[in-house]
Amino acid sequence: GQQVMQIPQYQHVQEGEDFTTYCNSSTTLSNIQWYKQRPGGHPVFLIQLVKSGEVKKQKRLTFQFGEAKKNSSLHITATQTTDVGTYFCAGRRNAGNMLTFGGGTRLMVKP
Amino acid sequence: DAGVIQSPRHEVTEMGQEVTLRCKPISGHNSLFWYRQTMMRGLELLIYFNNNVPIDDSGMPEDRFSAKMPNASFSTLKIQPSEPRDSAVYFCASSFRGEDTIYFGEGSWLTVV
What we know:
The complex is a heterodimer. Chain A is an all-beta fold. Chain A has one domain: Immunoglobulins (Immunoglobulin-like), CATH 2.60.40. Helices cover about 0% and strands about 55% of the residues of chain A. Chain B is mainly β. Helices cover about 0% and strands about 55% of the residues of chain B. The radius of gyration of chain B is 13 Å and the shape is globular.
């Protein structure tokens, strides 16, 4: 079955440093979504990428979808303590298929 | 919109007891998901309903787990009998058409002692 892997599992950064999490799928994806879960909270949708090579930005967050539509990344510039949480990617193989969530990357930011 | 509503938010129960978790999806959404989250296994999809019909229950761990969706605005996840290894956060989520953004409830934190 489809597998979605995320690395790293955990990342400690100093406030102001950059952070990147990577997502890799065993199969080509029709689209990929990213979610953020704050400690003690629930996953909240951030963005969806659909096109090969697509890049989207949300303030300090940059999302990329690979050319082969099998990998994606989330980059945060100059992390802040409010960025703390677990970031999940979730891939969909075909329209109408289920989303498969990655294991998440837990980001911790030291002030 | 009130979002996905789950109850109870927290439950502590003794091993062997029956646990029922409840969910009200966002009005108008026709897909409903039950997920379980633990540190060891991450976020796991247990079951998925579309138009109140179970479509994929391959993630349900064993016969102790059952889920129902009697109507478009209500679903339950039941564990009977509960075991300590069932301790987890159980999320209900809904979406429109099963293809769009998934909206999660705040979760039901279950502890089985």
